[in-house]
Phosphoesterase RecJ domain-containing protein (Laceyella tengchongensis), 644 residues
Amino acid sequence: MNWIQPLEQWIEEADRVLVVSHIHPDGDAISSTLAMGTMLQAMGKQVVMVNESPLPKKFAFLPGADEVKQVHEVSETFERVVALDCADRARMGACCELIAPGASVVNIDHHATNDSFGTMNIVQPQAAATAEILYDWIDQSRVGWNEKLATHIYTGLLTDTGGFRYSNTSPKVLRQAAKLVEMGISFHQIADQVLETVTLPQLRLLKAALGTLQQTDDGLVAWMKLAKADIANASHDDLDGIVNYARNILGVDVGILFREEQPQTVKVSLRSREIVDVGRVAKQFGGGGHARAAGCTVQGTIAEAEASVLAEIRSQLRSEAR
Amino acid sequence: MNWIQPLEQWIEEADRVLVVSHIHPDGDAISSTLAMGTMLQAMGKQVVMVNESPLPKKFAFLPGADEVKQVHEVSETFERVVALDCADRARMGACCELIAPGASVVNIDHHATNDSFGTMNIVQPQAAATAEILYDWIDQSRVGWNEKLATHIYTGLLTDTGGFRYSNTSPKVLRQAAKLVEMGISFHQIADQVLETVTLPQLRLLKAALGTLQQTDDGLVAWMKLAKADIANASHDDLDGIVNYARNILGVDVGILFREEQPQTVKVSLRSREIVDVGRVAKQFGGGGHARAAGCTVQGTIAEAEASVLAEIRSQLRSEAR
Ligand SMILES: [Mn+2]
Ligand SMILES: [Mn+2]
């Protein structure tokens, strides 16, 4: 692969490297950060790994996770930066402030929307995860595999493919996973920690949401609501995934979670199976996303948001039926 | 593989074959039944596929699922039988009545406890699923792969490995999955249907159970309760998986679900991560299972069952700590 030699050359020339990823980091962002940090250290470089947001607790088990700093802990700026899993510069959030003007930035990512913001751009939209790209590098590098790296890469593959369930799960990803399992990683514990583990606040939110579950008569749309009181103290991470309980009901196409962020401000998460393009629905309300997962913010009460979003979905369902 | 030739020879000699699996069939049981039926039909044989229990709705999408009969629909007995995913004859339940005295039975299974009840026994405890064994056969057979067979086998691999998460997920299984994905199956839809889809009764039970969630002060044990009124009309399948919500809480080792089957009869489902051997706990109450998943029935009220099962777990935790 002809991007590996330039990447290794770039690293060769570096002394001190900043490794960053996107805000609210997911498993791929964190794992890529840790794998890159581990590789750079193995190549004798000084490394500072930083993220704008604290790492979700469920990733604390990853080897090296305690070395990832938060922005306010770092005061210097860097001439050499590796940005991972970021489609554009803004995705790094406040980490941008740690990048010296004129710094050399390596941009390694798999988002089709990547705007090539780097000095060197290794962007592979066909990859399921940034970890998949790093796998290819590690596999060819003289550093080679160790359990730590294998654990990082497996975690990135696992999370960005939704546990090998999303349609981006290619034969290549499954073969990479097979090789990593063969290396003796604790893949069962990784899946348990990362995909199965829930927190008490999550279960409390789930219970509250399930208490409000409603479904249209045709069964195609199911929705739940969380009032401001329910979500007090809930983190981004706690709320993640709750909307799927509505979407996952047998026969449902669109699942929705309405949550009252502020009085008169309702965040709407939308998921769909195959009929309704929820990206289009969200766009009607100034939001964004893609056909199967999207979100928007609606001004008004929960009841008002409910009425207008459901009306929009019904109108899409009607035009689909035509 | 030296079992394939005798198996194909046996099929060659057959005209009409009964294909059965175990009661309360899981994804592997159903998929193996369908794959075997499909292979036999392709080899020009008459096939009757039967199960004691109706197939869970979520498997209805599998090609050929509507051809699987229930026992009462079949009046003849068979001289040639293939039993799949059954550790012993009794696992077939009432399907045993369809086996003629002196019939030739092929027993294909992956349970280490298989008692070789067949005339021909193809038992591979190192296989993650019966579907894994059938994969090897299909891959070598002159019938060869088609999308229907690939869908069956993928479903069996997926379900018996808990979505490639359980420790039985071998590199071999992942490579088989890679090949099946390469054949163009709708693996994303399969995972969605089989692993993600929930029913409204399941969500109602979950909500009721979450409302009773308790945890010991040290956080190691979490439990939930379902009263008889909650589980009226609930199927085996609806209740499946609810106990995992207790086990999956961050920091929990043992998760328990107590459910009142009858007044004074409480079914107890136990799951654990790594400390407590719940098989041993269940055994104290006349139940069974293994270290990570077990169950028992306790006579008394839910409160009584709760007290005695928790006492037993505490005593195991104390002896572990020593
Ligand atoms: Mn990613
Ligand atoms: Mn099985």
